[in-house]
Structures are given as structure tokens and as C-alpha cells.
Design brief:
The chain contains 2 helices and 2 strands, in the order βαβα. The termini are far apart. It has helices at residues 15-34, 63-72; strands at residues 3-9, 45-51. β1, α1 and β2 (45-51) form a beta-alpha-beta unit. It is an alpha+beta fold. A two-stranded parallel sheet has the order 1-2.
């Protein structure tokens, strides 16, 4: 049984988008791993884990830091 964990910044997706992401991942796994056999979908686990923006970084940038910089109108420090 596949288990897929999607980690994202909190607030990036609304409830409808989260459901669409989970459904899309599940559908993809059914096609790829089970040749389209619908019964397989009952065995696919998908979870979306949302994290606070301050808990993320890409290199020396974080969503929280970028938002703060944009609000102040300053570039990268």
C-alpha cells in the first residue's frame, strides 16, 4: 500500500485544492502502479502536511523572510 506525504507551506492550498492534489496523486498511483485498477485506490494513502512559513527555507530564503522583505520594499539583505 503506497503512502505519499506532501509537505507544503501552510495556507498555500485551500481545502478544495488540497482535495484535488490528493485525488490527483491517488489517481496517478492507480494508473502507474496498478494499471488503472480502481480497487487499488482504496489502498493509497495521501497526506498533506502543512508547516508554518518560518519553518521552511530554500538556500538562504524562506517564505516568511521573503514576505517581510516585500512588505518593506527591500531586496535581499
Amino acid at each position: 500500500m503506497p503512502f505519499v506525504s506532501v509537505k507544503t507551506v501552510k495556507g498555500l492550498f485551500n481545502e478544495i485544492q488540497k482535495q484535488e492534489v490528493m485525488d490527483g496523486i491517488s489517481d496517478l498511483l492507480v494508473q502507474v502502479a496498478a494499471g488503472g485498477e480502481d480497487r487499488f485506490q482504496q489502498a493509497v494513502w495521501v497526506v498533506i502536511e502543512e508547516q508554518e512559513p518560518g519553518n521552511w527555507s530554500l538556500g538562504d530564503n524562506s517564505p516568511e523572510l521573503e514576505a517581510s522583505r516585500q512588505k518593506r520594499g527591500t531586496g535581499k539583505s
